[in-house]
Amino acid sequence: DGGRKMARDEEKRYGSEDWEDVPPAQEPRLGLILAGKTGAGKSATGNSILAHRRFPSRLASTPVTRTCAQGSRRWAGWRVEVTDTPDLFSAGGRGADPDCTERGRCYLLSAPGPHALLLVTQLGRFTAQDEQALRGVRELFGADVLARTIVDLEGTSLDDYIRYTDNRALRALVAQCGGRVCALNNRAADAQREAQVELLLAQVERLAREHGGAPFTNAVYGLAEALRHTPPDHRLRQVAQRLAAAGGSGRGRGRRWLEVAGRRWRRALLLLGGALLLGLLLWRLRPQPLQEVSPD
Ligand SMILES: Nc1nc2c(ncn2[C@@H]2O[C@H](COP(=O)(O)OP(=O)(O)O)[C@@H](O)[C@H]2O)c(=O)[nH]1
Ligand SMILES: [Mg+2]
User: Fold this and answer.
1) What is the 3 state secondary structure string of 17-33?
2) Atom of ligand 1 nearest to the CA of 38
3) Is the CB of residue 154 below 6 angstroms from any atom belonging to ligand 1?
4) pLDDT tens across 19-52, in order?
5) Neighbours of 83 (CB within 10 A)
6) d(CA 172, CA 177)
7) Relative to the alpha carbon of 125, which ligand is closest?
8) Which ligand is nearest to the CA of 40?
C-alpha cells in the first residue's frame, strides 16, 4: 500500500543503518517540539530534522503516532532534541487522553522545556483543524508558548507563502506566532532538504539566544523539574494529575472559567443596557393620551 511504499522511500532516502541517538553529552541542549494536526507531517518533519528515519510517518486515516517519542542529533555544537507528538491538540485527541497521561509524557520527554515549538501545517491544505491545533497548543502549554512558536509551511516555499495573500486565517495564525515561518519540504532532494533544515535550526538557535539560552518553561515544567529525582512512574502520575486538575493545561481551569464567565457577564450586561435604552426610547415616544376634558 501507499503507506508502506512511502516508508520504503523514506528508508531509501535516509538509509536504514542503525542510528545511535546522541548520548547526553557536554553539548548544550536545543529542544524542539513538533505540534500540529494529525497527518500534517510532524513525524516526517522530525525525520528530516534528524536526517534519519526515527519516527514512523505515513499516509494513514488513523494516526500512526500513538505516543510521544524523541530523537536527537548533533548540529553546530548543539545537541538537538526533537520531541514528536501524537494527536494531542485536537478535541478528539484530548478526549482519548482523559487522565492526561500522554500529555504528561510529552512534558516529561521535553523537560526542562523546548527552546522552540514547531507548528506543522501545509500551505495548500490549511484548514480549521490547523487553527484548532494552535488552540490545543495554547491550552497545553499556555499562551506564552506562542513566543516560541514557528509555523512550518511544509511542502512549500516561503516565496509561495509571501505570494499567497488570500488565506487570511493562515496569516492570522502566523501573526499570532510573531510572524515566524519556515518552509520544509520533506520530499525534496537531500541537499535541498538539508539546506532547509539548516535554516530552521538556525531560527531555533536564534530563538534560544533571544531568550538568553533558556528553554520555555511554565508551572508544569517546573513541577517536572522539581520531581526530577523521583521514580519515573511517580513523576508521570504527578505531572498528569497536575495537568488534569488544570483542565489539561498549565493555565488552570479556574482562570478559564472566569474568562468565559467574564465574557458571558459582559454580553448579559450589554444586552440589559440595550434593552433599557430601547425601553426608555419607547417610553419617550409613547403616544400621548388625549387630554381628558373634565366635564366640570
Ligand atoms: N507533499 C508533502 N507531503 C508530506 C510532506 N511531509 C509529510 N508529508 C506526507 O504527509 C503524510 C502524513 O505525514 P506524517 O509525518 O505521518 O504526519 P503526522 O501525523 O503529523 O506525524 C504522509 O503521507 C507524508 O508522506 C511534505 O513535505 N510534502
Ligand atoms: Mg506522526
Assistant:
1) CCCCCCCCCCCCEEEEE
2) 19
3) yes
4) 456 566 678 999 999 999 998 999 999 999 999 9
5) 25
6) 9
7) 1
8) 1
Q: Whose CA is nearest to atom 23 of ligand 1?
A: 59
Q: Is 263 a residue whose pLDDT tops 80?
A: no
**What pLDDT was estimated at residue 14?**
53
- Measured by CA distance, the residue closest to atom 28 of ligand 1 is 155
43 CA to centre of ligand 2 in angstroms: 4
Mean pLDDT of 130-138: 95
What cell was used for 76? 553546530
Query: Where are the chain's structural domains?
Result: 2-251, 254-283
Of all atoms in ligand 1, which is nearest to the CA of residue 46? 15
Reply yes or no on domain 2-251 having CATH 3.40.50.620: no
Q: Please state, in angstroms and as integers, the Cα–Cα distance from residue 265 to each residue in 27, 259, 270, 278, following that order.
A: 52, 10, 8, 20
User: CA–CA separation, 287 vs 110, rounded Å?
Assistant: 72
pLDDT in tens, 228-252: 999 999 999 999 999 999 875 544 4
The pTM (predicted TM-score) of the whole model is: 0.78
Residue whose CB lies within 8 A of the most ligand 1 atoms, among 186, 192, 197, 200, for a mutation test: 186
